[in-house]
Amino acid sequence: MIRGLWILISIWLVLPDTQAQTKAELEEKRRKALEEIAYVDNMLQATSREKKESLNELTIIGNKLSLRESVLSGLRQEMRLIEERIGLNSLAIDMMEKDLVVLKRDYRSAVLNSFRVSKGHSETTYVLSARDFNQGYKRLKYLQQAAKFRRRETELIMELKGQIEVARKKQEEDLNRISDLQRREERQKSLLQEEQNKKQKIVKTLSSKEKMLQKELEDKKRIARKIEGEIARLIEEERTKTRKVELSPELKLISDDFAGNKGRLPWPVEKGIITSHFGVQNHPVLKYVTEDNIDIEITSYGDTPVRTVFKGEVARVFAIPGANMAVIIRHGRYLTVYQNLVNIKVKAGDKVETKQEIGRVYNDRDNGNKAILKFMVFDEKMKMDPELWISKKN
Fold this sequence. Notes:
The protein is of the alpha+beta class and 394 residues long. Helix content is 60%, strand content 17%.
């Protein structure tokens, strides 16, 4: 029984370290999610002058819902971890209390046996009353071993009592932590419900504006065709000029560096949230309608500088009627495109460094001062998903 106890205690002492690491990871994830929620709240508050609902606002609230759900998921996961520890602590306390009963019983038996052996006389009398030296020596050794056993039993009893006290204290702390997490969970559930109601209200309003949404979709397709056309023309011009398919050694090196940083490139804006994803996406309002995006949209608000995600050379700067300016930067065989820009600070042929400012995102005062950057990545003419190239967090 005692041996099983110490195995259990060993597990019980090691497990909190593992859970502490997991708990720290969950808390850090929750902290970042709450920071992003705060940023979204600030954005919505800063753009509250906007009187009309829009797809962009709908997407922003959708992002906020996802973040809120991740916070709830983290809270529930942390509660499960603590509940597991509470269960293990309960088992440990139960086993330790049973072993404490056994130890106390053994100790009492040892004391009684020692008393019976000496027949109520002192230990010295018990040794000296032996019939010869050999028996006296054996009696002395027996008394020493019995005393050592009793001391060890006493130490075990005290140690076990201490462990039970520690376990009960941890149990109380964990129960208090569970109560705190449950209160947080209820608060997050309440906020989630409010945000879901707001999202449903916007969807209902936008559903009655089908013609407007169709026009927005057509404008988006027109801009995409314009950009793809400019990229195709750019590539063809360069091939005609050089009459080479192979890249120069310098451009090949830049290509390799760019590819080697996939998933680690900085964001083209310092702060923002992705409100439109690459590829075929279901329209958030129009039923049975999909859109095939060549870009991602990153929404921020106010004055927003745009910066390059990697060193390269400005290949083209051009205007798109009704959609401001676009800049194409070549990184070897790769191209990055930054669209919906104003106040351009570069021109074709300029060498640029990573994070160099190239302009500003157009600040739409009629749309709550939102600044929506459209960002693209191409491998020559092949469209790539920009989210796979930039880092997870900006």
